[in-house]
Backbone:
């Protein structure tokens, strides 16, 4: 009888240990699953942040590209204006010896300022004249 009780006690102990080890293994697997889920969520959030940042960078690049294109157009317009003015002055100097001599002479500051004011666009789309009136563009 003692042997039977010992056998039964050992069987119960082995069964209890088997149940305990199964429970502990289940706890371990569950905690790993939860850790993996938390890591996956963190990675998803990080990916969303990186995508938003990438979209912001694209917008900045587009804005800068548009600004650079506008700047290039403005510089081309300025270069064209300078080229036209230079060629007109060269033609004037080539065809008129008096004008060529005059272009090489000293110009008073007030005349120089007046000529610069004539070159600025006015409000009415014309060229401003030092009295406030605007001369039409030709």
Residues:
């Amino acid at each position: 009888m003692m042997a039977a009780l010992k056998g039964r006690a050992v069987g119960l102990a082995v069964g209890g240990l088997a149940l305990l080890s199964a429970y502990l293994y289940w706890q371990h697997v569950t905690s790993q699953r939860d850790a993996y889920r938390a890591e996956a969520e963190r990675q998803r959030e990080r990916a969303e942040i990186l995508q938003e940042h990438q979209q912001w960078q694209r917008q900045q690049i587009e804005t800068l590209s548009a600004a650079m294109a506008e700047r290039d157009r403005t510089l081309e317009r300025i270069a064209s204006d300078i080229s036209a003015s230079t060629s007109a002055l060269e033609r004037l100097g080539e065809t008129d010896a008096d004008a060529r001599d005059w272009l090489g002479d000293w110009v008073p500051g007030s005349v120089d300022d007046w000529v610069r004011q004539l070159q600025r666009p006015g409000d009415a789309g014309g060229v401003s004249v030092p009295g406030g009136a605007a001369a039409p563009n030709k």
